[in-house]
Sequence to fold (397 residues):
Amino acid sequence: MDESTLIARVRAGDSAAERTLYDAHVDRVYRLAFRLAGDDALAQDFTQETFIRAFDRLGSFRGEAAFSTWLHTITTTVVLNGLRKVKRLRQRETDIDDAQAIGVRKRESEPDLKMRLTKAIDELPEGYRTVFVMHDVEGYTHEEIGAALGVETGTSKAQLSRARAKLRVALADFAGEWTT
Amino acid sequence: MTDQHEDPKFDAWLKDVARTTYHAPRTTPREEMWARLAAERQRRAGRVIELRPWMRWAVAAAAVLVLGIGIGRWTVRQQPRGTTTVTPLAAVNDSSRDLAYQVAATQYLSRTEALLTSFRADARPDARDAARFATQARDLLTTAQLMLDSPAGDDPRMRALLEDLELVLVQISQLGAKGEVQEADLIRQGMNQSNVLPKLRSAIPAGPVPVRTQGVL
Fold:
């Protein structure tokens, strides 16, 4: 069954078709949500919200773009908005913890490559990080990224280039890893 | 896009390391998420809109208003042609085009009736009351003159009534300046002789006075 037929059946209220459509796309949605959120519970919440919105709004999907493109637009919107809320909440908690920890802070031990890499990517500006994760980590094309984020393909390419440049500076201590 | 900092070796290494280490997801929990998804959709579908107390009043008022308009329109449509029932002046023209003017006329006539009734009952108004009557009369006089020039003035009965009211209101509006009890008595006599108040009352349709018609005329 092709996807347009499947979508028509979902619109007609076929719950089996809903499950088929879900199965066809859930891996990619969940993986992207997990990569961006870095947390399984959040990734599941975002995936769930993405599919709820997609099923609710399927009537507005006109088929001008691929369904996956439309779905990833919803995914990135849900994830990025969700992360902004989480970040605000965590910032409040951090502020309280910091206030309580004044005077007792210890120097952290030198992190290994994985920790440094994770920290460096996490600290990228939101746009850079999103494009980097989508392209370099999850393998989306610039066309898919542009469509999902509502930006030009050139913007996606430029942001990826700047993200890599920042990461190279942040990971300069590990230069031997890629020059050899 | 090329970049002056481009380094293919670094890019390849970064991609490889990031894919294996950066927030590496576990196997997709399909069934678990599908179950949650179905439950959440069911919960949202069954959710009812909860109204706050003030919203309930607003909804009730809106419902009554809509019902009233519906009944009114239905009643007008049901009235057979050629029926010779006596109709209040303010409700003579039943076309929707003139509905706003009818509402404005009804409100205006009600306000005028209140003033004239109050004026007639007050046999010996003091200077302050006389000034208050005069102020109100001037306001209503302006409206009467506007109404005479509006479609409401096209109806002969309404026009005659408005002209009578205009005359009385002119007299009352000058009362504050003169401040004479005798003058107030003369106005009352004129009102009685012209039967302006009974005419006014018969011109007002039964029921509550419509509101919010400022700017219609």
Observations:
- The mean pLDDT of chain B is 74.
- Residues 53-78 of chain B form the longest helix (26 residues).
- The CA atoms of residues 175 and 183 of chain B lie 7 Å apart.
